[in-house]
Amino acid sequence: MRFVAYYFHYSRSTKTIHMRKILLPLAFACLAAVACNNQASRNAQDTLSGEDTGMTKDMAQDVNKETFENDSVRGATNNISKAAEDGLYEVKLLSDGQAKTTNAAIKKMAAHMLKAHEKLNKELAELTAKKGITIPTVLEDSKIRDIQQITDKTGTDFDKAFVDELVDKHEKAINLFENTANDATDPDIKQLFTKAIPELKEHLTMAKKEQEKLKK
């Protein structure tokens, strides 16, 4: 009887150990799967909430360098990615400036320019997607800091800094768009950049007008 009892106890213990050997790895596997799912969920939420790192100008140019072998095409894509970055900068600057200024004329001007630049950014994004050209989707931290230095100002000091920046950026944008339009071999790219120049010049005239007012 002692033997039978011992055998029964031993068999139960052996089965328990065996079951633990099976169940423990399964438990760890389940925990790992849950952790992976949670991480994937967090990654998706980060992307949807705009916390994803995105594509900066330098990153976009590196991608285009690998995509396009021809040096002249690479040069064109560099100009295009620079124009896209400038567009992102203009939209943020104008959006922040419109919200910050208390000057009615400057607020109206900023709203007008903002609408135009958002439209241009959309057209450029759609065209480059068709052409397989990668463009930036976010600003580099240094660019955001540049805007922050302007928006940290108040009153007339802000208005002057804001309008001065608009003048400077539009002068550079016109030069970039003219060069890109002249050098472009793709007719669609040439058309888009050529079409945008008159409106950029109009914006420059508007900004210079407000700049002169602030000097008085």
UniProtKB/TrEMBL annotation:
| Keyword Manganese attached | no
Among InterPro entries, the record links this protein to:
DUF4142, Ferritin-like
Keywords recorded for this protein, A-Z: Signal
Domain (DUF4142): residue spans on this chain:
79-209
- Whether Signal counts among this entry's keywords is yes
Signal peptide positions (record): 1-35
Q: Please name the Gene3D superfamilies in this protein's record.
A: 1.20.1260.10
Q: Which Pfam families match?
A: DUF4142
Q: Where are the transmembrane segments?
A: none
- This one is known as DUF4142 domain-containing protein
Organism of origin is Chitinophaga lutea
Taxonomy, top ranks, is: Bacteria, Pseudomonadati, Bacteroidota, Chitinophagia, Chitinophagales
